[in-house]
Specification:
By secondary structure, the chain is α/β, with parallel strands linked by helices. It is 40% helix and 29% strand. The longest helix is centred in the middle third of the chain and has 19 residues. It is globular. The N and C termini lie far apart (52 Å).
Length: 188
């Protein structure tokens, strides 16, 4: 039986802790050869681009493909997930939030192994679609107390700070200059 997972389903089921665990497992698989990653490929159509990438993680007995088109600003992400044992389709998954969580989790795994264990301040540059999950992931692996966020738009950084605050216990602070995020980061 094939299970369709919508964006709403993914948002209700996927926690950052699950994403961190899965991404770290995939990285281990890449290191030991039990996982495979096919880099992104693109097809130009004249009106836009069609992007696709694939991977398989042996320990999860699954493989999948992420596909999406970029045509005039509209992007619809789809991830068909297959059994690596039978080749059968398990689930088509709408992949916007899933992709954001995966990207954020990759930063969280990197932070887990590369940042000082006692790091309490995070400097964030940019408030785009990937920013929230970056903050969520880093806050999940470090005792972050403060996130200094900068973007070129004062309105966007203020809106991001207010919206992101609902997702983490760290204080989210919009800063007016890029240097403020860096200096605050270095002083803690």
């Amino acid at each position: 039986m094939v299970l369709l997972l919508t964006e709403r389903d993914v948002k209700s089921l996927l926690t950052m802790e699950i994403a961190l665990e899965a991404v770290e497992e995939a990285f281990r698989g890449l290191a030991d050869g039990s996982a495979i990653n096919q880099p992104r490929r693109r097809i130009e159509t004249g009106r836009g681009l069609f992007h696709f990438m694939a991977s398989a993680v042996g320990s999860r007995k699954a493989l999948g493909l992420k596909a999406y088109g970029t045509f005039g600003g509209q992007i619809d992400f789809l991830i068909p997930l297959y059994s690596s044992e039978t080749g059968r389709l398990l689930a088509p998954v709408e992949g916007d939030w899933l992709g954001r969580m995966r990207t954020g989790a990759a930063s969280g795994v990197a932070t887990k192994y590369m940042a000082r264990p006692e790091a309490k301040t995070l400097g964030l540059f940019g408030t785009g679609t990937q920013a929230l999950t970056q903050v969520m992931a880093v806050c999940a692996v470090r005792p972050v107390e403060r996130v200094n966020v900068y973007s070129r738009s004062p309105e966007k950084r203020a809106a991001f700070a207010a919206g992101a605050q609902k997702h983490v216990t760290a204080q989210i602070v919009a800063v007016d200059e890029p240097r403020a995020a860096v200096e605050a980061q270095m002083s803690s």
